[in-house]
Amino acid sequence: MLPNKFFKWHNQILEENAVKLSNIQPKDTVLELGHGPGFGLQAAAQLLTAPEGKLLGVDYSQYMHEMASKRMKEQISRGKAVLYCSDLVAMPIEENTVDKVFHCNCYYFWPDLKAGARAIHRVMKPGGIMVTTLRLDSVIKAANMKVLTGHKWRPEVYMEALQSSGFTDVRMEKKREKLITFQAIFATAVK
């Protein structure tokens, strides 16, 4: 497998598992943060079968926003999906409107974890579920190579930011699929 295909496959598995672990229901409003090329958006859209079901996506990268917009153009044209090219903290999503939030491989790139966690909490309905997936072994390697600096890459630092922002039941679980071991962080929004 070529390196690009290898990384694409790994990320796609993480995104699809974040969707699966979010327990998306047909009528939910679902938000993917750092949606990248849109694999997670595609997987989530298939579960939002009720007319009320809505999909939102936020990515800071104009390039990724354009890639995902092309991949999701049918859902966007039907009003089923809305994608924003925006910073997480400035995302133009109303308070208390989102049932499920998922993201993969992105919290360690946020400038301020606590501001990011507060922004997620702001848009979520009480009782809403947030799930993030990551491969901790890969994250540790990136930190050792100085690709990720400081301490915000550490899951416990992100989990503390979630707790201090009003999330409860914040926990990390080890998961495995298709020969890949990964971690999933879960949190429940309370108001």
From TrEMBL:
<feature type="domain" description="Methyltransferase">
    <location>
        <begin position="30"/>
        <end position="128"/>
    </location>
</feature>
<protein>
    <submittedName>
        <fullName>Uncharacterized methyltransferase YdaC-like</fullName>
    </submittedName>
</protein>
<dbReference type="GO" id="GO:0005783">
    <property type="term" value="C:endoplasmic reticulum"/>
</dbReference>
<dbReference type="InterPro" id="IPR050447">
    <property type="entry name" value="Erg6_SMT_methyltransf"/>
</dbReference>
<keyword id="KW-0808">Transferase</keyword>
<dbReference type="GO" id="GO:0016126">
    <property type="term" value="P:sterol biosynthetic process"/>
</dbReference>
<dbReference type="Pfam" id="PF13649">
    <property type="entry name" value="Methyltransf_25"/>
</dbReference>
<dbReference type="GO" id="GO:0003838">
    <property type="term" value="F:sterol 24-C-methyltransferase activity"/>
</dbReference>
<dbReference type="InterPro" id="IPR041698">
    <property type="entry name" value="Methyltransf_25"/>
</dbReference>
<dbReference type="InterPro" id="IPR029063">
    <property type="entry name" value="SAM-dependent_MTases_sf"/>
</dbReference>
<comment type="similarity">
    <text>Belongs to the class I-like SAM-binding methyltransferase superfamily. Erg6/SMT family.</text>
</comment>
